[in-house]
Amino acid sequence: MAELNEAYKGHLVKIAEAIQASELFQAFMDTEEEEDYKALQEHFEPAIEQLYVAVADAEPLQLKSLEEQLLNDDFAGLYLPKALGFTILRGQLNPDYKYVQSQNHFRNILLFICNSPNFDILKNRIGLSVQVGFSLSSDIWITNILKDIQNKRVKWWLQNQKMTELRDVLNRKSSYIRYKRQFKDYNYLSTEFPKTAPEQKIMFGQLRDFLAYRISNQENNSSIYQPYASILLDDKLKGTPEHTYLLGLFLNFMELNDDYKNALVPLLNNERKNNKDFNEQYFDFLMDLHHSKSPALNVDADRKFMELLDADINDDIKKLYDTLKIVHSKGYVNEEVMAVVKKYHDSHEGLSVNNEAIRQSILVYIRTLMENLEETDFSTWFDMHKVFSSYMNLFGNEQFNQSIKDLYLSYLRRLLKKYVDKRGGDYQGIKKFTTAAFKEHSFMKEKDVKELFKTKRKARPTPASK
Fold first, then answer.
1. d(Cα 430, Cα 31) in Å, to the nearest integer?
2. Where are the domains of the chain?
């Protein structure tokens, strides 16, 4: 955990002093009424949140330290319910929606709230958080929390936050997703960088999510460059799938000044030469990004990465990027490019990661076009279908075809919202094209295609009884 810098600490001290000196705080101390606490909240929490946003933007590795600074009675528990939620959502989950590691930061904030003189008021703002956090935690972890609570009334309240229905993984997943949605507008992710190979494996999921968020949202990442590059250059961490993934993220998406380029480009090419698993690991990295789309691989990332490759190393990575270089320079619509893609595709097993990589790269182009096509430009869809069909026939891959179908359906739904006159030429043209295209590639049965164009009848209201 990175230490909160002195300027931020000083700002927090001023907020705490203002809280303690305020008439609002004195009024609450006199009455201990929730209404007076709410007034205190409304006045001072915006200042805390403003500082939190500034730290999240410029120094995200210091967020945990900031939250620990709030564990001080001078803040009267302000902002802690929200901070508690942030800690719950940062933890890495396994497929059963349970924490991979014990969440000590969650524990520390929860215990502080439970021991706060304002617990009776704060508990009204943390009930759902505790229910979700407990459901993601192990029974042993919860038992250890309860052992540290001396107040029987508080302990009883905590025990009642263990929801029986959340023992079911599907309920737990649904509850977590709904809870997470409440925080979608907040930038709360933070991380630590590993120091050992075991730490790298354990911490990888949380680190990956943090970096993916920062890159995808084009956040200010200047403060994480140095610790990020340091772990990439650490000999103890090299050679693993996690290291290759993190290296791939840095080289595809981070801005490389001369210092980072001089340090990391030799690392990349040494790994290509000396790590027999590097090619496979790197292709796995590409597949993960293509499927998660976070961050999204695109032409800019490909061009940035291909410039770093030592052309004298004739590995699978070079062969892929040599092909992509032609695709990007001449365009995927070009027949010569299609021939190059076919040659590459035919030189590998149909379901190999090599072929999946080229299919996904072409799909990026198609998805970009279809998702940005205006409803008035449907003639472009008609024209480009010939190109898309060529790639579907070239690849002969069901998953690729399914992706095209999904894009078609999504665009068709937009068109049918705009063109509602069934006798109109535009509507009829869209219907005729869709029927032919979907039949050509067996996207749907003919009767199902007809259903797409049927007007959904509204149920007639039941007559009121006399």
1. 69
2. 6-181
